Every structure is written in C-alpha cells, then in structure tokens.
C-alpha cells in the first residue's frame, strides 16, 4: 500500500486543517526542533489504530487534542485521515476522531466502523503497526548496535519467516516425543514377549 494523503485537524500542534500529499518515492519532512515533525508520526500511528498512549508520547486522549496557543483557542476534538492506495490502484480512506471525553470514532471510507475493521483492512494490506512500517529514532540506534544474530532475527520476523521457524520447532518437539513413545512401546513389547 502507498500512503497518498494525510489530513490532520486539531491533532496536537496541528490546530488548523493540514493536508499532506505524498508522491511515489521517498518523502522527507524537515523543520526546526519542536515544529511538529514527531507529532505527524504520532498522528500516523494513531490513525492506523495505535492504542498505547506511551507510544504516542501522551498520557491521555486530551494530550492528543490541540490545547490552544497564543493565537488560537483549544479545540474539542482531533481528527486524522489517511488515504492509502492499494496495489490494484483502488483507494481506501481511514479516519479516527477523538473527543475530550475520551470517546474515539473510527471511519472506513467515511462510514462509521469498529477499530477491528480498521485493523482487518490494514492486516489484509500487509500494513500493520508491528510490521516495522514505522521505525522511530530510538529504533535506528538500536538496529545499528545489535548483533548480526539479532539483526537476522528481526529480518526473519519482517519477512514472515519466524512463524515457520516456530512451527518447525514445534514439529521437531513432537517428533522427539513420538520417538520417546516408540522407545517405551518397544520396551513394553520386549517385556511382554
Ligand atoms: P524535535 O525535532 O525536537 O523532535 P518535532 O518537530 O518532532 O521536534 P514535536 O515533538 O512533533 O516536534 O512537536 C512538539 C510541539 O508540539 C511542542 O511545541 C508542543 O507544545 C506541541 N504540542 C504537543 N501536543 C500538543 C497539544 N495537545 N496541543 C498543542 N500543542 C501541542
């Protein structure tokens, strides 16, 4: 899937409606410290279904809603939408809203839906939160420092090899158990004969 459009309104420091259009290839967002670059990453994680406030550098839903500035009063809701383009060129629009009460709303192509529906759509597109789609600053340093063995483990997980490795381990364990059982049966047979 390709991230085509990203819209924010009332999310953290983005009080006014802000729309970003991405073109195929690499996009870079630059700006001075504190201008809201990381808030954009938080917004992206959030609209993709993130439930952990810690991961969004917040303590509660209220921290996600524009809290006011010298120029603008606080807002009562935050809304973020993304348009994702699928391989077959069809587009899908995901929206998430939150109110000061803490109530969240999710929309799929502008129709109300459950968080689970958003998660299912993303899983089907191979675009999950835990799929290393979003790599934060700390993770880059971590990736540079870890051992080759650990790097291989992460690559295998990203490539989807881990689940087969786990299944192999399970099967080897079962074979071992069956071998033990066979030995026991042979013993019993020996005694009977
Ligand atoms: P750095 O390069 O230092 O990481 P950055 O561009 O990533 O900076 P962010 O962390 O995205 O900056 O933005 C921080 C700014 O967002 C701060 O000025 C903070 O006051 C503002 N901010 C965060 N939450 C809210 C909110 N709920 N309402 C208004 N402003 C907010």
TrEMBL record:
<comment type="subunit">
    <text>Homodimer.</text>
</comment>
<feature type="binding site">
    <location>
        <begin position="32"/>
        <end position="39"/>
    </location>
    <ligand>
        <name>ATP</name>
    </ligand>
</feature>
<feature type="coiled-coil region">
    <location>
        <begin position="161"/>
        <end position="193"/>
    </location>
</feature>
<feature type="domain" description="RecF/RecN/SMC N-terminal">
    <location>
        <begin position="2"/>
        <end position="193"/>
    </location>
</feature>
<comment type="similarity">
    <text>Belongs to the SMC family.</text>
</comment>
<protein>
    <recommendedName>
        <fullName>Chromosome partition protein Smc</fullName>
    </recommendedName>
</protein>
<comment type="function">
    <text>Required for chromosome condensation and partitioning.</text>
</comment>
């Amino acid at each position: 899937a390709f991230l085509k459009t990203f819209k924010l309104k009332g999310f953290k420091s983005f009080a006014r409606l802000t729309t970003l259009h991405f073109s195929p290839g690499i996009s870079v967002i630059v700006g001075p410290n504190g201008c809201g670059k990381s808030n954009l990453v938080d917004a992206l994680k959030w609209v993709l279904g993130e439930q952990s406030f810690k991961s969004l550098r917040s303590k509660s839903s209220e921290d996600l809603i524009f809290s006011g500035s010298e120029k603008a009063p606080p807002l009562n809701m935050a809304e973020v939408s993304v348009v994702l383009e699928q391989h077959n060129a069809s587009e899908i629009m995901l929206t998430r809203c939150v109110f000061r009460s803490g109530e969240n709303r999710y929309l799929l192509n502008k129709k109300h839906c459950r968080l689970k529906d958003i998660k299912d759509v993303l899983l089907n597109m191979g675009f999950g939160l835990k799929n290393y789609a979003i790599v934060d600053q700390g993770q880059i340093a971590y990736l540079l420092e870890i051992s080759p063995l650990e790097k291989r483990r992460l690559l295998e997980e990203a490539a989807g090899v881990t689940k087969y490795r786990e299944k192999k381990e399970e099967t080897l364990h079962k074979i071992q158990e069956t071998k033990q059982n066979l030995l026991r049966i042979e013993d019993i047979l020996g005694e009977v004969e």
